[in-house]
Amino acid sequence: MTTVILLALTGLGLAALYFLVASGLSLVFGLADVLNFAHGLFLGVGAYATWWAAGNLPGAGSDGFGFVVAVAFGVLAGALVAVLVELVLIRPLYSRTIEQVLVTVGLSLAGVALLQATWGADARPFPRPEWTRQVTSILGANVPNGGLLLIVAAVLVLGALLAFLRWTRYGLVIRAGVENREMVTALGIDVRKAFTLVFAIGGAAAALAGALGSVYFGTVSPGQGGSLLIFAFIVVVIGGMGSVVGSAYAAVAVGLLQQFVNYYGESGLGDICVVGLLAVVLLLRPQGFAGKVATA
């Protein structure tokens, strides 16, 4: 029983990491119709910016409030890079899907190369609070605090996104734009500002995933974003394009499936089962768990 509890909670921690990456991807595709393969770059920027800030930014550090400052710096860096990418590279290519894919794939590769050239290709130890290295006993299972931190962060981000989408003017514009972008434009609303805002939100969430994911793994590396992006895309497709809640459900399913199968089966079998789940969903319910809905 203790093993099941441990696997369930560590699986939820992995699911939380996938959700933080997938939530921004889902919003960007739902509103702007952009398959952003450079989303992993925002994660990498957030992770390395947090790593750099912890050792160099005044007031930042690897423990206590200093760590919060370092993570905030990383999240801001990820959001700014996302806005810059949208304004300079994506905005001229709306409604040109092939060009979008080529540009974002190229940017993803260039971003990894830039991170490698700046900080090297090897993984570096990530500065993290001492308490995240410890475990908490829950119903007899010793659960890593880093995973619990991811779960708390994902729940807070999900709640903040839903509150923003339901109770703010720009949130309503985004929800309406996901349902019918042409109607929103016909009403005289400039959806381009909403596009930029969605990219900023997605970049911030991915950067937070990069920072907290590095706390969880204990290291930061240039290719970290790319490996997580694969599972984030799977989560988005399973959950339903444009649905934040659907992404949350799908992330839980993927994280738990991966964790339990990898433990009780052969190593790597969990990843294969996740791909199998994706295939089943595409065959039986191609619109995903939540379908093409606004995000609630």
Please describe the structure with a list of short key phrases separated by commas or semicolons.
single chain, 296 residues, mainly alpha, ABC transporter involved in vitamin B12 uptake, BtuC, two-stranded antiparallel sheet, two-stranded antiparallel ribbon, globular, transmembrane transporter activity
Q: How does this structure look, described?
A:
With 296 residues, the chain is mainly α. It has eleven helices and four strands, in the order ααααβββααααβααα. The strands form two sheets. It has a two-stranded antiparallel sheet. A two-stranded antiparallel ribbon has the order 2-3. The model has no long low-confidence stretch (mean pLDDT 86). Pfam families: BPD_transp_2.
List the helices and strands and how they pair.
Blueprint: H1 2-32, H2 39-56, H3 64-90, H4 97-119, E1 124-125, E2 135-138, E3 141-144, H5 145-167, H6 169-179, H7 181-186, H8 191-217, E4 219-220, H9 224-239, H10 244-264, H11 269-284
Antiparallel strand pairs: 1-4, 2-3
Helix pairs in contact: 1-5, 1-6, 1-8, 1-9, 1-10, 2-3, 2-4, 2-8, 2-9, 3-8, 5-6, 5-8, 6-8, 9-10, 9-11, 10-11
